[in-house]
Amino acid sequence: MDYKYDIFISYRHEKKVHKPWALDFVEKLKVFLVEELISTPRIFIDEEGIRTGDRWRRALEEALGYSKILIPIWSVSYFVESEWCNKECAIMYYREMMLNEERRGRAPEGGAGAEPCRLLMPVRFMDGENYPPFAKDIQQFDCEIYNRAKRLSVGETKRFRAHMFHVKQWAPQVKERLMSAPPWDERWPTREWTEAALKHWDENADKFKPKPDPSPVRLTM
């Protein structure tokens, strides 16, 4: 077996703002990744929303297990209001963590070792100041200035072109991350792996839960 998908998109399925923006963003990213990869990227994105039942849960977990990287579209509500988004992020974060531990274990004593494995490429959609501690340590693709429009149309010339150019600049980084993805591991789509990832997430809740900015809010009269 091998990877089935290059990218797994994780996003909130709230219909008025998050979902239309996410779908539009993915379409823009596809345009430039085709140019970078010289092929059509294999992207898994659940457009219908989460269905009930264990069968669909396993389908999502397996799709993530067969994906090279995760692109989560982050907002505070991603972490607070979506159990599924948290699970998707937890599973890929755990894979990244375990791969890096294995690499450090194989590094020669006193040697520099291999480059860290990076499997999360977050998009900052809203309110990065209040993200969980772990998220603040991960480089994010900042799209906050484009989050007010649900779907930027060609008619919105300046904003449309600016957003397209912004995504175009990011596409080579996504390609680089895909090219450096580790070999697929048969453990990743299994229930045992998923349960271990979610257990790690739950046991380190302080690290993975959003914390409000303690700085006082100044009101102007």
Overview of the structural elements:
This protein is an alpha/beta fold and 221 residues long. Helix content is 48%, strand content 9%. It contains eight helices and five strands; from the N terminus they run βαβαβααβαβααα. The chain has helices at residues 18-37, 54-65, 76-81, 83-106, 133-136, 157-179, 191-203, 205-208; strands at residues 5-10, 43-44, 67-74, 123-124, 141-142. Strands 2-1-3-4-5 form a five-stranded parallel β-sheet. β4, α5 (133-136) and β5 (141-142) form a beta-alpha-beta unit. The radius of gyration is 18 Å and the shape is globular.
List the defining traits of the structure above:
disordered C terminus, single chain, 221 residues, alpha/beta, 8 helices, 5-stranded parallel β-sheet, 48% helix, globular
Write a brief caption for the model:
With 221 residues, the protein is of the alpha/beta class. The protein has helices spanning 18-37, 54-65, 76-81, 83-106, 133-136, 157-179, 191-203, 205-208, and strands spanning 5-10, 43-44, 67-74, 123-124, 141-142.
Report mean pLDDT, rounded to a whole number.
Answer: 85
| Main beta-sheet strand count, sense and barrel state | 5 strands, parallel
In angstroms, what separates the terminal alpha carbons? 63 Å
β-strand percent reads 5-15%
User: What general outline do the C-alpha atoms trace?
Assistant: globular
Put simply, the count of helices is 8
Contiguous low-pLDDT stretches (5 residues minimum) are: 216-221
Strand pairing plus helix content: what structural class? Answer: alpha/beta
User: What integer value in Å does the Rg equal?
Assistant: 18 Å
How many runs of DSSP E, i.e. beta strands? 5
What is the string of helix and strand elements? EHEHEHHEHEHHH
Largest sheet: spatial strand order: 2-1-3-4-5
- Helix coverage percent of residues? 40-55%
